[in-house]
């Protein structure tokens, strides 16, 4: 384990995810309390959970992030825009938006652009564009990144976690492309401290995981 694993303040990298569809209001309160206690960057939830999360974290430094078009990205542009605006009005300050991969693969680049750009423009919030990189070719990854940057994304996010997780190779690929112009969120399958550190060393500036508390416990065990 590297010295970074012992010395890094890991908590501010973590978007604490609660995206189990069966999660109860009690589960959400517990996750919010964990996020506040450990000083995580954000809690990432479904739009329906935003009002409760905002109320629970009122006055705290933890951002409330809503997933939009999750997990497929194949909702209509109008419905994704409405979902994003409703989440913003409820108090979400970050939005993780899944791009339409079918359009991307079909070469409908303007449609992919407009789908994301309208959300960035209408909400004015920090938008993390989810590329779902495990399902894209290298050329498609490059194209998706370029489109999302042009559309106004604040972060490029590797995956939803539903169809494959974050890899060091994908984070390195994005880091070479964007040259620190925006953030990189690695997400999906991050369960160990070793994984987390490797992704950060590769260029990730946020980590989306439901195992944030476990990661901090693993780090404390090194002391």
Uncertain segments: none
- State Rg: 17 Å
- Please provide the ordered H/E string of secondary-structure elements: HEHEHEHEHHEHEHEHEH
**In this structure, how is the largest beta sheet organized?**
8 strands, parallel, barrel
Terminal Cα separation, in Å? 12 Å
Summarize the amount of helix as a percent range. Answer: 40-55%
Mean pLDDT: 96
Tally of strands: 8
By helix and strand content, what is the structural category? alpha/beta
Shape: globular
Number of distinct helices: 10
The percentage of residues in β strands lies in: 15-25%
Q: What would you call the quaternary organization? A: single chain
| Strand line-up across the major sheet | 1-2-3-4-5-6-7-8
Task: Note down, in words, how this protein is organized.
The protein is 46% helix and 17% strand. With 223 residues, the chain is of the alpha/beta class. Strands 1-2-3-4-5-6-7-8 form an eight-stranded parallel beta barrel, surrounded by seven helices. Helix 4 (77-89) runs parallel beside helix 6 (109-123) and helix 6 runs parallel beside helix 7 (138-151). The longest helix has 15 residues, at 109-123. It is globular and about 50 Å long.
